[in-house]
Each structure stands twice: as structure tokens, then as C-alpha cells.
Amino acid sequence: MNWLGAVPAWFWWLLVMALVAGGQQYRVVVADGAAAAAQAKTAKSGKVLADYRLEISERDRRAAAKARTEEQRRQAVAEEEGESARKKLELAQGRAIAAESAAGGLRGEIARLRDGHRATCDTISAQQRQTGTSASVVLGELLEEADRMAGSLAEALERSRIAGVACQSILYGTQKKARI
């Protein structure tokens, strides 16, 4: 142990300080490496997150565009069906006017026949004429009233049918096209 006594005390302190400093330096290098790895991982996670956000925003944009396109298509179908229904209603109204005109002609013919019947029945006895006239008048009036009612009911039925067909074609037409 002689050689240990020959080494001055300050050298031992210097050696201990060098070992402590070296240990500290090793800890700093290891910590810097860990920090760099953590930064790389964070940067990679940030890039993954940015890519995910971009993907989500692109998917949302495509979904919104698809929804707009579908809404525009449905609106076009509804407008087309509405226009078709309006044309059918105009045609039905024209037919109703023509039928009313024809019915007016028939009512005029019934009135002419009734007047003719009255004129020809002057030779028949008074009792027979009253019975015959009243029966023909009643039948003529019933026929006129039935004709008026039939015309108005046919017009209402045609309007209802056209509106129902238009609604049904809008509802089922858009669903069929959406499945395609």
C-alpha cells in the first residue's frame, strides 16, 4: 500500500470528480437519446394524426357532395312529377269542360223532347196527359241531375287519381332510383 500513499490526495479528489462527471455525462447522453426518440415518436404520431384528420375531412366532404347530389336528383324527380301531374290535370279539366258541354247539349235535347212531348200530348185526355207529362218531366229532371252529379264526381275523381299517382310516383320513383 505504499504506492497509494505516494499519490497525492488532490489526485484522488480529481479522479472521483472525473468519474462523477463522466457518469453525469453518460446520463445526459442517454436522456438526450430518449428525448430524441420521444420527439421522433411524437412527430410520427402528429403526422399520423394530421393524415387521419385529412382523411376524415375528405370523407366528410365526399359525403356532403353525395348528399347534395342525391337531394338535387330527388328535387328534379319531384319537379318532373309535379309538372306531369299539372299537365294531366289540365287535360282532365279540358275533358271535364268538353263533357260539361256535351251534357249541356244533352240537357237541351231532353228539354226539347220534353217540350215536344207536351205538344204532342194535347190530343190525349187531360188525365193521361198530366200523368204522362209529370212522369216525363220527373224523369228528365232526374236524368239532368244525375248527369250533373256524374260530371262533378268524375272530375273530382280524376283530380284525386292524378294527385295520388303523382305522389306515389314521387315517393316510389325516388326510392327505386336510390336503390340503383
Brief rundown of the structure:
This protein is mostly helical and 180 residues long. It has helices spanning 2-6, 9-120, 126-179.
How would you sum up this structure, described in words?
The protein has one domain (about 45-180). With about 180 residues, the chain is mainly α. It has helices spanning about 1-5, 10-120, 125-180. The chain has 3 helices and no strands. The two termini are about 100 Å apart. The mean pLDDT is about 80. α2 runs antiparallel to α3 (about 125-180). The protein is rod-shaped and about 170 Å long. The longest helix is centred in the middle third of the chain and has 112 residues, at about 10-120.
**What summary fits the major beta sheet?**
none
Write down the domain tally: 1
Helix and strand element order: HHH
Strand content: under 5%
Shape annotation: rod-shaped
Give the low-pLDDT segments: none
Tally of contiguous helical segments = 3
- The Cα radius of gyration reads 51 Å
Report the end-to-end length measured between terminal Cα atoms.
Answer: 99 Å
Arithmetic mean of pLDDT: 81
Search tags:
180 residues, mainly alpha
What's the helix and strand layout?
Blueprint: H1 2-6, H2 9-120, H3 126-179
Helix pairs in contact: 2-3
